[in-house]
């Protein structure tokens, strides 16, 4: 089997345009394992915007945390997304409580070079770029910076508080990283829209599946005063391989085209019309060379909205007992430094074929639920070695449970009981032998309703009686032949159709051929409706039916 360990992640719901709500959401995310992957979305009067709804769905979070949005609007949004809604005051006692602080997952820290963070009251772009730290957490390994250029320089090496939340955070399947153009997001004025859009785009950026540096920077009037910053950006661009184009995608919601051109000039970038492309090369191609190019009409959203599963995966062996409890023992792959909570998702052969329904998850484990196609359990505290007892139901047990979910009582029909008895007595593996299944299909006979429909179609098309007789013989099997006979030659009457009685017949064809069944026929201008044979009786002037004949039986 396989398992993946991940934090319980949330999406933060704020009122439309709420700067205070954005600050609070960033503060919460900056203190949680995996916080950089937690989106912040605005609750508008009509719900979420299409972009924000897509962001929440791609992020695959566990719940919505309401920061300052209207409760009824937040509840409606959560219902539309199929997620629980959690109030900020109870975030540590909810579905998103199974996580930990950064001190529990960060493995190595250099006291001389701590990551930087913004103050909760700092500029919005500072919070979006580096995260923030609350005053009571200043003893942690972090430094609150007040120098504006540091928020640009530290992003080059992803050495900030918010980047630290990705320590031991994983995704799978593991594939060679695709190389994407560097994204420089330019912000003018306060830039609330730029800050929240940059945050959400970076939240969806895969941690390991693509290589796409992202920086949130102020306009040219500020950047041009940062000593050697253009050279540092050029060093980043030069270190990247050649298999993609363009070098830089300039993005902004607040800067004008002229301001973007001025910003590019300050960094020594040149415009290009080259079509963008990504690539992956093993080994990597040679490094890029100046001049470095840019475009201003590229949207990085399409580069990050890709399918992925969250968690650090591992695999292990397990002895499974059919229909009984089985113990799963394995060493989980995340090294925690203290008390921490986490989610574990399981998948593998014992779970294949089981319907992804809540009741089936509870059959396997009382606290389990289906998430992202996997069976999920929550652990608090999380130990290094896990021992979990599960019961993997067989398909008949799962079927019984599903029927119990939707009915007050259920039992097999008579045909079902007969089929079950035959299945218990017969070896179904015989159907796998060559030709057996095909022969069984060839011997099955179509239903009478389909025969009646085909006869009506042939009659409507004006087919002669001989063709109808041939069709009826084909459906009747090898032991019967059919003929369309006039009522006067019938040996059996009593076919009831509507208000009239029409005649069918069963004709004795001699000792060698036996009885031959004849199909009923309506007079000219008539058609049958719901034919139903009555009890056979002898027609006037005809010999009585032998008691052992098919017609008599």
What is this entry, summarized?
The chain is α/β, with parallel strands linked by helices.
Give a verbal description of the structure.
The protein has 553 residues and is α/β, with parallel strands linked by helices. Among the domains are: 8-100, Rossmann fold (3-Layer(aba) Sandwich), CATH 3.40.50; 316-405, no CATH class; 411-441, no CATH class. Helix content is 28%, strand content 20%. The chain has 17 helices and 25 strands. The strands form eight sheets. The chain has a five-stranded antiparallel beta sheet with strand order 17-1-19-21-20. It has a five-stranded parallel beta sheet with strand order 12-10-13-15-14, sandwiched between helices. α2 packs parallel to α7 (192-204). The longest helix has 13 residues, at 192-204. The protein is globular and about 95 Å long. The two termini are 60 Å apart. Mean pLDDT is 84; it is low at 477-553.
Give keywords.
Rossmann fold, disordered C terminus, five-stranded parallel beta sheet, 553 residues, five-stranded antiparallel beta sheet, 25 strands, alpha/beta, globular, single chain
The helicity comes to: 25-40%
User: What is the CATH-assigned architecture of the domain at 8-100?
Assistant: 3-Layer(aba) Sandwich
Q: How confident overall, as mean pLDDT?
A: 84
- The general outline is globular
CATH topology term of the domain at 8-100: Rossmann fold
Assign the CATH class of the domain at 8-100. Answer: Alpha Beta
Low-confidence stretches: 477-553
Q: End-to-end distance, in Å? A: 60 Å
Number of helices: 17
- What radius of gyration results from the CA coordinates? 37 Å
Based on DSSP secondary structure assignment, what is the total number of beta strands?
Answer: 25
Beta-strand residue fraction: 15-25%
- Biggest pleated-sheet summary: 5 strands, antiparallel
Oligomer: single chain
The spatial strand order of the largest sheet comes to 17-1-19-21-20
Structural class computed from helices and strand pairing: alpha/beta
């Amino acid at each position: 089997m396989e398992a993946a360990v991940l934090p319980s992640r949330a999406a933060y719901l704020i009122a439309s345009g709420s700067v205070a709500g954005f600050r609070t959401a960033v503060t919460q995310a900056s203190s949680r394992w995996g916080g950089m992957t937690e989106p912040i979305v605005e609750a508008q009067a009509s719900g979420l915007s299409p972009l924000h709804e897509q962001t929440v769905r791609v992020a695959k979070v566990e719940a919505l945390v309401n920061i300052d949005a209207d409760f009824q609007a937040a509840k409606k949004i959560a219902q539309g997304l199929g997620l629980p809604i959690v109030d900020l005051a109870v975030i540590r006692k909810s579905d998103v409580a199974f996580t930990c602080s950064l001190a529990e997952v960060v493995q190595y820290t250099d006291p001389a070079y701590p990551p930087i963070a913004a103050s909760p009251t700092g500029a919005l772009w500072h919070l979006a770029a580096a995260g923030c730290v609350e005053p009571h957490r200043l003893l942690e390994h972090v430094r609150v910076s007040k120098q504006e250029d540091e928020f640009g320089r530290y992003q080059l090496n992803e050495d900030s508080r918010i980047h630290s939340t990705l320590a031991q955070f994983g995704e799978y399947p593991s594939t060679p990283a695709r190389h994407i153009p560097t994204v420089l997001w330019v912000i003018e004025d306060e830039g609330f829209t730029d800050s929240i859009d940059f945050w959400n785009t970076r939240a969806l950026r895969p941690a390991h599946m693509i290589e796409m540096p992202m920086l949130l920077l102020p306009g040219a009037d500020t950047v041009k005063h940062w000593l050697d910053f253009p050279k540092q950006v050029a060093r980043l661009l030069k270190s990247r391989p050649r298999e993609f184009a363009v070098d830089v995608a300039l993005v902004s919601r607040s800067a004008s085209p002229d301001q973007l051109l001025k910003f590019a000039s300050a960094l020594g970038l040149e415009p290009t019309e080259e079509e963008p492309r990504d690539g992956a090369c093993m080994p990597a191609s040679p490094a890029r060379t100046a001049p470095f190019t840019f475009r201003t009409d590229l949207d990085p959203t399409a580069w990050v909205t890709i399918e992925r599963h969250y968690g650090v995966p591992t695999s292990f062996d397990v002895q499974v007992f059919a229909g009984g409890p089985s113990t799963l023992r394995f060493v989980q792959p995340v090294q925690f430094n203290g008390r921490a909570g986490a989610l574990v998702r399981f998948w593998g052969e014992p779970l294949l074929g089981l319907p992804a329904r809540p009741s089936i998850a509870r059959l396997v484990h009382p606290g389990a639920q289906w998430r992202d196609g996997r069976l999920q359990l929550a652990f608090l505290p999380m130990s290094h070695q896990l021992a979990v007892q599960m019961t993997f139901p067989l398909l008949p047990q799962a079927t019984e449970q599903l029927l119990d979910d939707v009915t007050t009582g259920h039992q097999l029909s008579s045909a079902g009981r007969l089929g079950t008895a035959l299945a218990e007595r017969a070896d179904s593996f015989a159907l796998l032998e060559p030709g057996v299944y095909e022969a069984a299909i060839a011997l099955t006979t179509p239903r009478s309703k389909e025969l009646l429909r085909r006869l009506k179609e042939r009659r409507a098309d004006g087919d002669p009686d001989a063709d109808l007789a041939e069709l009826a013989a084909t459906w009747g099997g090898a032991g019967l032949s059919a003929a369309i006979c006039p009522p006067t030659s019938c040996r059996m009457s009593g076919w009831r159709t509507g208000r009239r009685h029409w005649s069918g017949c069963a004709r004795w064809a001699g000792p060698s051929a036996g009885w031959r069944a004849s199909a009923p026929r309506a007079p000219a201008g008539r058609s049958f409706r719901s034919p139903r044979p009555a009890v056979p009786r002898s027609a006037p002037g005809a010999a009585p039916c032998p008691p052992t004949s098919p017609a008599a039986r």
